[in-house]
Amino acid sequence: MNLDHLVEHSTALIQEFCKGGHPITCAFSGAEDVVVLDLMQRATCFVPIFAVDTARLHAETIAYIHHVQQHFTLDLTWIKPNPDAVTAFERENGRFSFYEDGHLACCNLRKTEPLRAHLAHFDGWLTGLRRDQDPNREALPEVQTDPVFKGLNGPLRKANPIANWSRGDVETYIQHRNLPQNPLVLKGYKSIGCAPCTRALKPQEHERAGRWWWETASNKECGLHQTPEQILHSVEDLPLTKR
Ligand code: SF4
Fold it and tell me: Which ligand 1 atom sits nearest the alpha carbon of residue 56?
C-alpha cells in the first residue's frame, strides 16, 4: 500500500473506531506516534490524549510533549505513578533495579498500574504501535480486545491505526506534514522511552535495539502491550532483586 492509501485507510479506521459516542482515549508516547495525533485531526476525531510521565523521561521528551500539545491544541492528561509507591519501591530496591531484575517491576509501577487506573474510565484507546517495530509485534492486529486492561464497561477495545505502516512510511509522513519531532531523534534515538532505559542506536541497529539494551531481544516490552500469558497484574507478582 502506498502512503496515500495508508493514510486513507488509517483515517477511516480511526473514524470508525471513534464513532458512537463511546468514551475513547489516545496514547502519546512522545515519539513518532505524533503521526497518530495528526491522523486523528484529519479524521476530526478529538478524543482526550494521555501521556505517561514515569518521572524517568528525558527532559527533551517532556518538553516535546508540551510542544506537541500546543501544536495540536490537545486535551492532554499526564498519567503519573503513585509517588508513595515509587518511594517505597526505590527504598526497597534502589533506583536502578531494572538493570538486574528484568525491568518489569519498575515498568509495572511507573507505567502499567497508572495506565490501568486511567483506562478503566474508557471503552477504547488508540496507540501508535506498528508491526515492524519489533518481532514481538509482527502479528499485531489493527483492532483488538485489549489483552492486558479492562475498560469502563468490561472489555476494552484497542485500535492500532498505523499497525501496518513501516518505519519509512512514518518518517516520510512526518516530513511531508512538517510535524514536530522529539529532538532526541537528531541525537540518534528512534524508539524513545525512559532515560535510563533508552540509548541512541548504533549503525544498522533495529529501531528498538536501544530500548532496555541490556535485555534479550524477547524482553523488549514494558507490560502495556503483552499477551495474556505475559501479563503481570501487580508489583507483588514480581520477583524483585533486593539491592
Ligand atoms: S522504562 Fe525503565 S525507568 Fe521506565 S518504567 Fe520501565 S524500567 Fe522503569
Answer: 3
